[in-house]
């Protein structure tokens, strides 16, 4: 079996708002990389924080992706249905004496220079008030080689500190859920936004502690507005308008370093996506943290 035929990739949106140009770019990048490698492409809905998920948004995201011709090759996995698996992972970490309860406030952690120093590691008793669960980190250098951004390394103890795997509000932290599900779905290749590059060593560390596989990682630049802020709901990025899908896909391809042919009114979005698959070369993706879409002439 060739390596490419075992490729399984995914797009894993959090349904906190409909897709905007920035999230569309990540979806397109993961889709093209999977399809250009004859791979399987999955959608995973990271719906673990109900308070931040307006009703209907998950369905809206799926419709948006569908409008662009991007459909999951298998049923969409909802993280809200996977709570038992995360608890099992926590139990394993607990049995290995790797996690501990912590009720430190944000202000206390800030006072540590925002790098948690392990203050609660040796508390004899579980706190009476609400508490988070943190994992002990160590001084080992976690190294990886991003397919776009190149080599990266972190000493988690120094650079990040003991990090949260279950939040004070009882919700499972993204870092834990993502590794449990990437392994469960047998993801071989992760392609996502540059803002998550910094999370990669934490995820590799968790994979190592839990005995899970480590996929190959690639981080594409994120879209920023003219003020240099990441496009996100907080910064009022407009949700993508499906009526503009042709030009939005065209801009996404350019953003990813491609030179799609000039727009042609009768060409369908599916044809354009097909063009993207045929011409995809991950080496052409700019090795940058962010790009303002305004700088890309359409
Ligand atoms: N759910 C995360 C987000 O929307 C992405 C997770 C990932 O791709 O690892 O930012």
Task: Give a structural overview.
- The protein is an alpha/beta fold.
- 32% of the residues lie in helices and 17% in strands.
- The strands form four sheets. The protein has a five-stranded parallel beta sheet with strand order 3-2-1-9-10.
- The longest helix is centred in the first third of the chain and has 16 residues, at 21-36.
- It binds glutamic acid.
- The site of glutamic acid (GLU) has 7 residues, from loops.
- The site of glutamic acid has 7 residues, from loops.
What are the main properties of this structure?
about 300 residues, alpha/beta, Rossmann fold, five-stranded parallel sheet, three-stranded antiparallel sheet, 9 helices, about 15% strand, elongated, binds glutamic acid
Quick structural overview:
With 298 residues, this protein is of the alpha/beta class.
What count of helical segments does DSSP give? 9
Strands side by side in the biggest sheet: 3-2-1-9-10
List the domain count as a whole number: 2
Q: Could you report the average pLDDT, rounded to the nearest whole number?
A: 92
Relative helix content: 25-40%
Helix and strand layout, with pairings?
Layout: E1 8-11, H1 21-36, E2 40-45, H2 57-67, E3 77-78, H3 83-95, E4 99-102, H4 106-111, E5 132-135, E6 141-146, E7 150-155, H5 156-159, E8 163-166, H6 174-184, E9 189-193, H7 200-210, E10 216-220, E11 222-223, H8 245-255, H9 269-279, E12 290-291
Parallel strand pairs: 1-2, 1-9, 2-3, 9-10, 11-12
Antiparallel strand pairs: 4-5, 5-8, 6-7
């Amino acid at each position: 079996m060739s390596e490419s035929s075992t490729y399984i990739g995914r797009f894993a949106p959090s349904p906190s708002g409909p897709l905007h140009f920035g999230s569309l770019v990540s979806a397109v990048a993961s889709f093209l990389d999977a399809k250009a490698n004859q791979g399987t492409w999955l959608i995973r809905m990271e719906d673990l924080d109900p308070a931040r998920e307006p009703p209907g948004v998950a369905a809206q995201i799926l419709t948006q992706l569908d409008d662009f011709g991007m459909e999951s090759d298998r049923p969409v996995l909802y993280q809200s249905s996977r709570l038992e698996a995360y608890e099992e992972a926590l139990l394993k970490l607990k049995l290995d004496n790797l996690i501990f309860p912590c009720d430190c406030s944000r202000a206390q952690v800030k006072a540590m220079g925002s790098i948690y120093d392990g203050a609660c590691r040796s508390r004899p008793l579980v706190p009476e008030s609400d508490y988070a669960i943190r994992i002990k980190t160590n001084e080992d250098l976690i190294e990886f080689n991003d397919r776009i951004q190149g080599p990266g390394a972190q000493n988690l103890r120094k650079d990040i500190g003991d990090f949260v795997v279950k939040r004070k509000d009882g919700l499972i932290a993204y870092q834990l859920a993502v590794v449990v599900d990437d392994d469960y779905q047998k993801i071989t290749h992760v392609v996502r936004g540059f803002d998550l590059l910094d999370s990669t060593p934490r995820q590799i560390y968790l994979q190592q502690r839990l005995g899970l596989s480590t996929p190959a990682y690639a981080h594409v630049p994120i879209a920023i507005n003219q003020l240099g802020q990441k496009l996100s709901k907080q910064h009022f990025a407009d949700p993508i308008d499906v009526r503009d899908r042709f030009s939005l896909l065209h801009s996404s391809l350019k953003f990813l370093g491609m030179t799609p042919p000039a727009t042609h009114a009768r060409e369908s979005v599916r044809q354009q996506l097909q063009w993207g698959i045929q011409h995809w070369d991950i080496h052409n993706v700019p090795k940058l943290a962010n790009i303002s879409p305004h700088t890309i002439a359409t």
